[in-house]
From TrEMBL:
One of its GO terms (cellular component) is encapsulin nanocompartment. InterPro entries: ENCAP, Encapsulin_nc. It comes from the Bacteria. This is Type 1 encapsulin shell protein.
Length: 268
């Protein structure tokens, strides 16, 4: 039986199509980390750990003259965001309504995206995940509030990466407030800041809810590894006379293979 139990929900095929489409639309925009790191998978709900390729010694063995080593793995983390949808709203959709209220699903999708972005860029110690900014061996480049100075800061970050032998192209992940400031800023002469930064980076500027400040990282590949077990999926929990209680779920691991391949930009 599918562990998501979708067949048990009082939701029509058209209703599930609506929910899946809405979740996909929200998540594709907000999952900024996936646009910049290496994504492997999905490997399935039963996939439980990432092979790290390392071992550690086992102190004692069952027999003399035998040695042993334990394989090291990184367990996958399961993330779940619960929400509910009105049964009346779903029935109205089946009747042809086009204004179905899915605010709760939107909120759950944004919460899931923020959690994933934070784990990738800033870490999640309780889950054994070290983020890109924390793993970086480089001193943080300060970011001043005047975004007209932002190109110089990004150019400095790129220079540091090049000096460490880390080739491009490079990407920039920023939170919503910084992204808005970049979009709205025109430099002297009216040249858009967004375009100038893309020329410096050679790669994208990514809107990533949850990111604090910014992170410049190489897109050459092999440096930042995201492994998906179950990719983001909608599941059914239970229902009552008024609402259907659902959840958004995924499992993943993340690790930094090359700490020198990224550098953080932080506000002064």
């Amino acid at each position: 039986m599918d562990h998501l139990l979708r067949a048990h929900a009082p939701i029509s095929d058209a209703g599930w199509a609506l929910l899946d489409s809405e979740a996909r639309e929200r998540l594709v925009v907000a999952l900024g980390a996936r646009k910049l790191v290496d994504f492997a998978g999905p490997l399935g709900w039963a996939h439980s750990a990432t092979n790290l390729g390392h071992t550690e010694p086992v102190v004692s063995t069952p027999a003399d003259a035998v040695t042993a080593r334990r394989r090291q793995v990184l367990p996958l983390i399961e993330l779940r965001a619960d929400f509910s949808v009105s049964r009346r709203e779903l029935l109205d959709h089946d009747r042809g309504a086009v204004d179905t209220n899915l605010d709760a699903l939107d909120d759950a999708a944004m919460a899931m995206a923020r959690a994933e972005n934070i784990a990738v860029f800033h870490g999640w110690p309780a889950a054994g995940i070290t983020g890109i900014a924390e793993a970086s061996v480089h001193q943080t480049v300060p970011r001043v509030e005047d975004f007209n100075d932002y190109p110089r800061r990004v150019a400095k970050a790129v220079e540091v990466l090049l000096g460490s032998g880390v080739s491009g192209p490079y990407g920039l992940a920023v939170g919503p407030a910084d992204y808005t400031a970049i979009i709205e800023t025109a430099e002297h002469g009216g040249y858009p800041l967004f375009d100038h930064l893309r020329q410096i980076l050679g790669g994208p500027i990514v809107w990533a809810p949850g990111v604090r400040g910014g992170v410049v990282l190489s897109l050459r590949g092999g440096d930042f590894l995201f492994e998906s077990g179950e990719d983001l999926a909608l599941g059914y929990d239970f229902h009552d006379s008024e609402d259907v209680h659902l959840y958004l779920e995924q499992s993943f691991s993340f690790r930094v293979a090359t700490p020198e391949a990224a550098i953080a930009l932080a506000a002064e």
